[in-house]
Amino acid sequence: MTTNPDLQLELRGPQNNIAVIRLARPTKRNALNDGLILALRDLMDNLPEGVGAAVIHGEGDHFCAGLDLSELKERDAGQGLQHSRMWHTALERVQFGPVPVIAALHGAVVGGGLELASSCHIRVADETTFYALPEGSRGIFVGGGGSVRIPRLIGTARMMDMMMTGRVYNAVDGEKAGFAQYLVPTGTAFDKALELAGRIAQNAPLTNYALMHALPRIAEQPSDQGLMAEAMMAAIAQSAPEAKARVRAFLEGKAAKVSKD
Description:
By secondary structure, the protein is α/β, with parallel strands linked by helices. It has 2 domains: 7-200, 2-enoyl-CoA Hydratase, Chain A, domain 1; 205-251, Lyase 2-enoyl-coa Hydratase, Chain  A, domain 2, CATH 1.10.12.10. The chain has 10 helices and 9 strands. The strands form 2 sheets. It has a 6-stranded mixed beta sheet with strand order 1-2-3-4-6-9, sandwiched between helices.
């Protein structure tokens, strides 16, 4: 459990190595307020020892319908800047935190909810999922990192269209556009996310760390710098005792081989 009733933690898996994080404001369609965002930041900084992956999902009919506008305060430019940066810090702890995070999406993934989902490493959507960025029609702008993360998923032109016109993507079109890596039947997104988290938690922790922290940065570097960073990360990862043990097990025929099934 966390100290905020709107954000709940449960440990799953055979070794309690999967953190299940639930947005628990179903009557508000899991809309985000500052207290919930700060609780998420603190939770990611203090995950129990032994956790190897996390799943974020929403209670009720929706993942997250965005910012709780009923709690929106009038701010001057300086206060607005600091507020946005607070959200940046919290969602950065999701993207660049201690473990991979899988988002289980259903219903509304809107505004700040889409910003939260885009900070996760893998997104699993069910057939009820829909995506929107209504900030344009409300006279505001994304402030939780969406202008950086969302174009990396779907492209700048698609995000601009969504904010200018209010376009809503359904689950099928959203998966094709790049919002989610998996599209599953209604009601099964959480189960699929939990399955993936169990698989991910079995990876070598240093490899998962490299994929979370190094790969996104390498992808944005000039090729010569990216290749050097890749070489350094590869050398570090393969030098770990666990990596050596896993390679040895494969060479000795004790590890499963890749197959198409």
